[in-house]
Amino acid sequence: MSPSKSQADCIFCKIISGEIPSQIVYQDEDIVVFPDINPATPVHLLIITRKHIPSLAHMAEADTPLVGKMVKVANKLAREQGLSEKGYRLTINSGAEAGQVVPHLHMHFMGGRDLRWVH
Ligand code: 5GP
Ligand code: ZN
User: Fold this and answer.
1) What is the pLDDT of residue 8?
2) pTM above the 0.85 mark?
3) Catalytic residues
């Protein structure tokens, strides 16, 4: 686990608080969803926890249900976007070697075009 920015400096916490404006496409007591600022696919949403958890590696056992809830929200969004049948990809990058840039737990929801597996 590498050192992470403090919660006060966190871009995604600032989106949750409204300090940084974003188009919120879904929110509930645990989860907030908004479009990725640099979309890699026609549909590219970020599903984040309201709780500032720096990465998967920083999760406490009590945080486990949050990841299930992220998937549940993703499946609901997929239905709404007409992607349930076509297909969609959920990705969580954890740590520098995986390409995590923003140290606040988030799941990428990607779809809308043919995706190839990237190693
Ligand atoms: P990571 O590489 O950490 O898994 O993904 C971070 C994602 O956050 C990137 O895809 C990047 O485009 C997105 N991102 C970074 N800063 C912002 C921002 O200020 N607003 C939004 N909506 N997305 C951001
Ligand atoms: Zn945060």
Assistant:
1) 84
2) yes
3) 106
